[in-house]
Write a structure and sequence with these properties.
By secondary structure, the protein is of the alpha/beta class. It has five helices and six strands. A six-stranded mixed beta sheet has the order 2-1-3-4-6-5, sandwiched between helices.
Length: 160
C-alpha cells in the first residue's frame, strides 16, 4: 500500500456556523500544495457520514485511507462507526462542532493543532482502542486512564 487516500467528510450542521466553504478552501489549498488529490463529501442527511465512510471503505478496500471527520463528536462517532477495516484506515478529527469530547484528552494548546488541515494531513498516527457498543464505536469511552501528556504530539489516530 504505497498511496494514502485522503477522504474528508464534512458535517455542515456541526457548530454554530456552516464552516464547509472555509474548510473546503483550506483542503483545496493544502492538498494542492502537497500534491494530494482529496475526496471531499458534505453531509446531506442524518447518517450520511457513516454511510459514506462505509462506501469509501468498500471502494478503496485494497488501499490505505485516512478519513477526516470535520464536525463535532457526533460526526466523529458516525465516521468511526462506518469503518470496515481498521487495519487500513486512519482517522483525523477536525473539530468544528459544538462538542468535541475526544479532544478533551489533549491540552488546550494541542487542541488548536486539530483545527489545521495541514497539521492533520502531515500529522503522526497514534493508535487508540475502540469499543463496539450496539453497532456504534464510541471513542470517548476508550479514553479512560489516559492523560493529556500521552498524546501531546498526536494529530491523527488509528483505531484498532
Amino acid at each position: 500500500m504505497d498511496v494514502l487516500r485522503h477522504i474528508f467528510i464534512i458535517n455542515p450542521e456541526a457548530g454554530k456556523l456552516d464552516m464547509s466553504v472555509k474548510i473546503c478552501n483550506e483542503i483545496e489549498s493544502v492538498c494542492s500544495e502537497l500534491g494530494i488529490e482529496p475526496l471531499v463529501f458534505i453531509s446531506e442527511y442524518k447518517g450520511y457520514e457513516q454511510e459514506m465512510t462505509r462506501k469509501m471503505c468498500e471502494l478503496f478496500s485494497n488501499e490505505e485511507i485516512r478519513l477526516y471527520s470535520v464536525g463535532g463528536s457526533g460526526t466523529l462517532c458516525r465516521v468511526v462507526s462506518g469503518i470496515i477495516d481498521f487495519s487500513t484506515t486512519q482517522v483525523a478529527c477536525c473539530p468544528v462542532g459544538l462538542t468535541n469530547d475526544m479532544l478533551k484528552l489533549y491540552s488546550k494548546e494541542d487542541r488548536l493543532k486539530f483545527r489545521s488541515i495541514r497539521n492533520l494531513v502531515e500529522g503522526n498516527v497514534k493508535k487508540l482502542d475502540l469499543m463496539d457498543v450496539t453497532g456504534f464505536d464510541p471513542i470517548d469511552f476508550a479514553s479512560f486512564g489516559f492523560g493529556n501528556s500521552c498524546f501531546s504530539e498526536s494529530i491523527l489516530f488509528q483505531l484498532s
